[in-house]
Design goal:
Blueprint (H helix, E strand, L loop, with lengths): L1 H28 L4 H4 L27 E9 L22 E3 L10 E4 L3 E7 L8 E5 L3 H7 L1 E8 L12
Parallel strand pairs: 1-5, 2-4
Antiparallel strand pairs: 1-6, 2-5, 3-4, 3-6
């Protein structure tokens, strides 16, 4: 009786080891593909679908945002040295910014993130490099704006922006 039990136990463990080794072999050989482990499962044959292009969309070109230091200014402020006329000869108004013309040419349209669109029509003695002055109607608004970093996008891409080191 003991010999019979020992033979069954040995046969059982040999069978278990064989099954484990077979499963591991197929898993490693076929990167865990189940359909190769169970060949009796038929994979559904898929007919290739034709791709029909019904609409072509243009890809939006990459837009560069640049970091500038902005401050506010107003007309007729002797402390800032401003009057009512810009460097281009126009009367100052909302929507005008002062720039360094070596960095942003006068007449260039820009967008200031979260503020809107502006035109570079003025210069300033302290506006050098990556700095701009934003015109405000009152000294109070200009003072409240203070000096802060802003992100700008050049709307006219006919020139290369040459930024100064901050």
């Amino acid at each position: 009786m003991k010999k019979y039990n020992i033979a069954i136990h040995i046969s059982f463990w040999i069978l278990v080891a064989f099954l484990l080794l077979t499963v591991m072999f197929f898993m490693l050989a076929d990167n865990y593909k189940i359909d190769t482990l169970l060949p009796f499962l038929e994979s559904a044959e898929e007919s290739p679908e034709e791709v029909v292009v019904t609409e072509i969309k243009e890809v939006e070109k990459k837009v560069n945002w640049y970091y500038f230091v902005a401050s506010g200014y107003s007309a007729d402020d002797p402390v800032q040295g401003t009057d009512n006329v810009t460097a281009t000869g126009e009367e100052v108004r909302v929507g005008i910014i002062a720039v360094d013309p070596d960095v942003i040419p006068l007449g260039t349209r820009i967008e200031i993130k979260d503020m809107g669109f502006f035109t570079a029509k003025d210069t300033g003695g302290k506006i050098k490099g990556n700095r701009i002055d934003i015109y405000f109607d009152s000294k109070k608004e200009a003072k409240e704006f203070g000096k802060k970093g802003v992100w700008i996008k050049i709307m006219d891409n006919s020139f290369k922006l040459d930024l100064a080191d901050l």
